[in-house]
Design a protein that fits this description.
alpha+beta
């Protein structure tokens, strides 16, 4: 069978004509590249406690992440399609914290005691990106809520 020079071009456009990528997914993919920070230390998940089954109520989940000397403790309470976060930095310190989630980033401030909170966070995958005054940025792994 002879080689058809037009076949690669025809095949290249086949997937975009037959099953195009939804525009909102393209936008989310491009936005996710802006969330990268190669200089941030990765905080690993060291504890996760799911209290929902303890008393049959919808109790919050508790997460603990560590990176070097910094520990990030987060309580996540789910209500419908959103979640509310309440957290603590240990050792206590002020910081800017970005919560990356499906609806885009949400910025919050940790006070001098390291306390922070964020409401209206879209359920799904999320991560925290902490900018303390001392040392470099720290980000948690992606967590499903």
């Amino acid at each position: 069978m002879p080689y058809d020079d037009d076949m690669p071009a025809d095949l290249r456009g086949l997937t975009t004509r037959m099953d195009p990528v939804p525009l909102h997914l393209v936008a989310l993919a491009k936005e996710s590249l802006a969330w990268r920070d190669t200089d941030a230390a990765l905080a690993r998940l060291v504890a996760q406690v799911d209290l929902a089954g303890v008393r049959g109520e919808d109790l919050p989940d508790l997460f603990t992440f560590t990176a070097g000397e910094l520990t990030i403790e987060v309580e996540i309470a789910v209500a419908g399609q959103t979640a509310a976060l309440t957290g603590q930095l240990v050792p206590p310190q002020p910081a800017r914290i970005r919560v990356d989630h499906a609806d885009g980033p949400t910025w919050v401030e940790a006070d001098g005691l390291g306390r922070f909170s964020a409401a209206g966070i879209a359920r799904g995958h999320l991560r925290l990106h902490c900018h303390p005054p001392q040392g470099g940025p720290v980000q948690t792994s992606w967590t499903l809520v």
